[in-house]
Amino acid sequence: MIKVVGLGPGHSDYIIPMATQAISEATVIIGYHYYFQFIQHLVLPDALCIGKELSEEEKRAEIAIQHALEGESVVVIGSGDASIYAMASIVYQKVAEQNLDIPVETVPGISAFITAGSKLGAILGHDFCCISLSDLMTPWTTIEKRIHAAAMGDFVTGLYNPKSKKRYWQLQTLKNIYLKYRSVATPVAICKQLGRTEEEIKITTLGDLDVNKVDMFCVVLIGNSQTFRYKNHLITPRGYLNRKPETGEEIQQASFAEILNNIPQNTLAKDTLWAAIRCIHTSGDFEYINYLKTSENAISIWHEYLIKGGTIVTDVTMVAAGITKAYTTKYNNKVICLLNDKESLQLAEKEGLTRTQAGIKLAAKKYPKALFVIGNAPTALIEITDQMQEGVLSPTGVIGAPVGFINVIESKERLKTITNTPYALITEKRGGSNFAAAIVNAAFTLEESKT
């Protein structure tokens, strides 16, 4: 039987009862010779104690297996927890490689980063990870990938084996990498000889971290972007204490905030940017910041028009359905769609038009000053732009977001030539009713963009 036992950070108060019992029953105890000073009071008088050097982990495992095969009750000791950067993995691996029928048990201990977390208060209050900077068994290229991932992922990070005489450059390299992702004010704690009489804890920041103050007896904890210092404590808030958005309005506002935090660099005017945000919110695609084009002040002009009760004409019912009813109710707007109007059907049949084209042609006569919103049919947008070109129609504005493959580009190119009427369009073959409605909703809510 082999028991791999974690002794905690060193003080007898940190050795759990299971570990105490395992050591007191062992006939053979193997470990780094430095650790025996912490368990002398627990060892049987006739127990065989075998001390080895730090670099002899494999040899310790082999000796443990040899004595276990001879029927001894073997304990392999290590600091902290035996399964974290310690002897457990090596012992299990050696037993598995040789396909041996030896019972192996891991007796847990209090790990260095857990001890540090407790000493500091609550730095481990949210997601965290641990990284060993020792490249004796892990290639530095692998360690470096993990450093980038942890820094970018905003994990609270515990550093094992941060520095030694031969390992003098890795911690500085890690610091340089973290500074690419984290603020210089990020809290950092250097925790030395935890649980022992020589214990020393220094709280600093990532920017002020002096790697020369760190040695092999230290564990270093780096906070995340939310970690803060209060007196001699480091606190990482639990995310769930910030109540998640629940109502539709809260969820929408949280979505807009998320978009703003991740929106690409741009030179859009504020009113156009707000419309672009609404389009991104509709699609989940940040590329729509490049696909929305408007004439100058178009969204601002339509905002004033709509809050005064202006009429909206659409080509299809889906656009009408996408315009938020709370806005049209509040400002007493009419939303007109004559797609299925009896008169439109007769006009379509008589003149050989599509239903949407006929509906828009009829609406142009009845509501010539309306805001025309096209989210489906290129023929409808062509009808509007042709009438505007001929001077027959002078609307408050035109939103062109027809989608498809036939006449779509041509219809939008026509709209671009109109210089005396505010317009907005979704370029190329992209678009659809949801985007047309999103632009209208952006005009309704332009004041929200200022908060």
From TrEMBL:
The gene is cbiCH. Transmembrane segments: none annotated. One of its GO terms (molecular function) is methyltransferase activity. Gene3D superfamilies: Cobalamin biosynthesis CobH/CbiC, precorrin-8X methylmutase (3.40.50.10230), Cobalt-precorrin-4 Transmethylase, Domain 1 (3.40.1010.10), Methyltransferase, Cobalt-precorrin-4 Transmethylase, Domain 2 (3.30.950.10). Pathway: Cofactor biosynthesis; adenosylcobalamin biosynthesis. It holds the Pfam family TP_methylase. Residues 2-209 form the Tetrapyrrole methylase domain. This is Precorrin-3B C(17)-methyltransferase. It comes from Aquimarina muelleri. InterPro entries: 4pyrrol_Mease, 4pyrrol_Methylase_sf, 4pyrrole_Mease_sub1, 4pyrrole_Mease_sub2, Cbl_synth_CobH/CbiC, Cbl_synth_CobJ/CibH_dom, CobH/CbiC_sf, Precorrin_MeTrfase. The keyword S-adenosyl-L-methionine applies. Residues 250-444 form the Cobalamin biosynthesis precorrin-8X methylmutase CobH/CbiC domain. One of its GO terms (biological process) is cobalamin biosynthetic process. The keyword Transmembrane helix does not apply. Keywords: Cobalamin biosynthesis, Isomerase, Methyltransferase, S-adenosyl-L-methionine, Transferase.
